[in-house]
Amino acid sequence: MTSAALSPSYQAAHTGAAVLRRQHGVLLVSGRDRASYLQGLFTNDIVALTPGRGCYAAYLTAQGRMISDLHAFELGDVLLLVTPPQTRDTVLAK
Asked: What gap in Å lies between CA 55 and CA 26, rounded to an integer?
């Protein structure tokens, strides 16, 4: 897909900045062991994220049941987690 075929919103987010809707759950996770702690809870390789990179993952219970899908972004000193509106309150309560 060429950049001309991409929406203006996607182009802005990919090359500059993006604005998230307020109804999404947004969490900042800090601490030296943040990635290794989340590694066991998420389905994607959180430890492998480098600053400025992100991934899509599922957040699971200890039994492997899905709590929510989310996007995780390594910002260098914190991880930013963005959840859908439908599971925001459940994730924030965990």
From this structure: 15
